[in-house]
UniProtKB/TrEMBL annotation:
Family annotation (PANTHER family): GTP CYCLOHYDROLASE 1 TYPE 2 HOMOLOG (PTHR13799:SF14), NGG1 INTERACTING FACTOR 3 (PTHR13799)
Record flagged with keyword Metal-binding: yes
Keywords from the named record: Metal-binding
SUPFAM superfamilies: NIF3 (NGG1p interacting factor 3)-like
Protein name: GTP cyclohydrolase 1 type 2 homolog
Subunit structure: Homohexamer.
Record-linked InterPro entries: DUF34/NIF3, DUF34/NIF3_bac, DUF34/NIF3_sf, N-reg_PII/ATP_PRibTrfase_C
GO molecular function: metal ion binding
Species in which this protein is naturally found: Myroides marinus
Residues holding a divalent metal cation: 65, 103, 327, 331
Family the entry assigns: Belongs to the GTP cyclohydrolase I type 2/NIF3 family.
């Protein structure tokens, strides 16, 4: 397979449009026409990981964190980022990053986190905004069901736990084609009126191209009338963090010890214990101080994340237990998920889980 054939599989796993605007995801290094011989999946594409890829004959590295995050004015090998990039280019190894695209996915980083802790009844903590669009189009009455089905087939009409959602209303459409037209209904230069159905469906923004392609492929009109609107609705199944419940409430100390054991962290920094049981738990893999307010608003008993600063622990306000388990530890099983997904989709070459420990933090 060529690299350009692998990328759609990665985007099937997690659309890059799910990523946050500040992020740098997708193909960072590599030629789209490169013939891929093996994929190494890692957390951070450090120089040691590139060495591992060379040793294991993998010429593509799929990493969670982007090794290139901000702009680079020169590549001279003066730091760990530049050294990794130089070695990848010299050895014709592609690097592809996923990061917040998988953070925001309903089956991604935070779902994996929830599963690790045994949480049930999970939902997104901070749903993604400005990501839902609505398509409005018009079709002859006898073609309306065909139009809806074609749009549904491409993912339109999904709302939370429901699919095949649409709204239709009937009316009269009018048109007149010019001398260059070739109307399916009526004839050129003649005014026509048709009993029509207005079809309305919503969809996630990244599906727009596929949905319009399906619409244009239908043969009921030579020209399709349609409108697309950006909606203010929040996308409930995509976004940062998750919240769920333990099957049974736990003592605070027992809960934190369970978190420590299941995430393999070397230590947990936490706010004051409140002397109450833990039942509802919010999580956010990676740096999560920005979501403390959301965890409080949804009445979580505990919020598990990383990279909390001194003064941010005060935001617990004696209402919630805040726990910082470490950045790497909060995302550590993500690369396993990526490896398992790609291994099921790709059978022509090996997809290998990196054995290099890229966690820069050590504990005594």
């Amino acid at each position: 397979m060529k690299l350009k054939e692998v990328i759609p599989i990665l985007e099937e796993m997690t659309p890059l449009s799910y990523a946050e605007g500040f992020d740098n995801v997708g193909l960072l290094v590599g030629d789209y026409d490169l013939d891929i011989t093996g994929i190494l999946v890692c957390h951070d594409a450090l120089e040691a990981v590139i060495d591992e890829a060379i040793e294991k004959k993998c010429n593509m590295v799929v990493c969670f964190h982007p090794i290139i995050f901000s702009g680079m004015k020169r590549i001279t090998g003066k730091n760990y980022v530049e050294r990794a990039v130089i070695k990848a280019i010299k050895n014709n190894i592609a690097i592809y990053a996923i990061h917040t695209a998988l953070d925001n996915h309903q089956e991604g980083v935070n779902k994996i986190f929830c599963n690790t802790l045994g949480l049930t009844n999970t939902r997104i903590l901070i749903p993604k905004e400005s990501y839902i669009q609505k398509l409005v189009t018009y079709a002859p009455k006898n073609k309306a069901n065909d139009v809806r089905q074609a749009l549904f087939n491409e993912g339109a009409g999904a709302i939370g736990n429901y699919d095949l959602c649409s709204f239709t209303s009937e009316g009269t459409g009018s048109f007149r084609g010019n001398e260059s037209s070739n109307p399916v209904i009526g004839t050129a230069l003649n005014y026509e009126e048709v009993e029509e159905v207005k079809v309305e469906v919503i969809f996630e923004k990244h599906l727009q191209g596929k949905i319009l392609k399906a619409l244009f492929a239908l043969d009921y009109y030579e020209e399709k009338a349609y409108e697309i609107y950006n909606l203010e609705n929040k996308l409930q199944n995509v976004g940062m963090g998750m919240i769920g419940e333990l099957e049974e409430a736990m003592d605070e100390i027992d809960f934190l010890q369970m978190v420590k054991a299941k995430t393999g962290t070397g230590g947990i920094r936490h706010s004051a214990l409140l002397g109450k049981e833990i039942k509802r738990v919010a999580v956010l893999g990676g740096s999560g101080s920005f979501a403390i307010g959301a965890a409080l608003a949804q009445k979580a008993d505990a919020y598990i994340t990383s990279d909390l600063k001194y003064h941010e622990f005060y935001q617990a306000e004696n209402q919630i237990v805040l726990a910082d388990i470490g950045h790497f530890e909060s995302e550590r099983y993500t690369k396993n998920y990526i490896t398992e997904f790609l291994s099921k989709k790709i059978t022509t070459f090996a997809v290998i889980l990196s054995t290099v420990n890229t966690n820069p933090v050590n504990y005594l």
